[in-house]
Amino acid sequence: MNILAIGELASLKAHLTLLDTALDSINQAISQSTDPESEGLFDRGEYLIGSGFVAAQRYIQTVYFTEGIKPDVALSLGEKLNYYGTFAHAIWQGANYWKHEEEWYQTVSCGGSLKGGSAKTRDNLEQYVDWDDYTCSNLLALILDGNELSLVALIPILEAWTEAVNAHRRTL
Question: Do residues 131 and 97 touch, judged by C-beta distance below 8 A?
Answer without folding.
Answer: yes
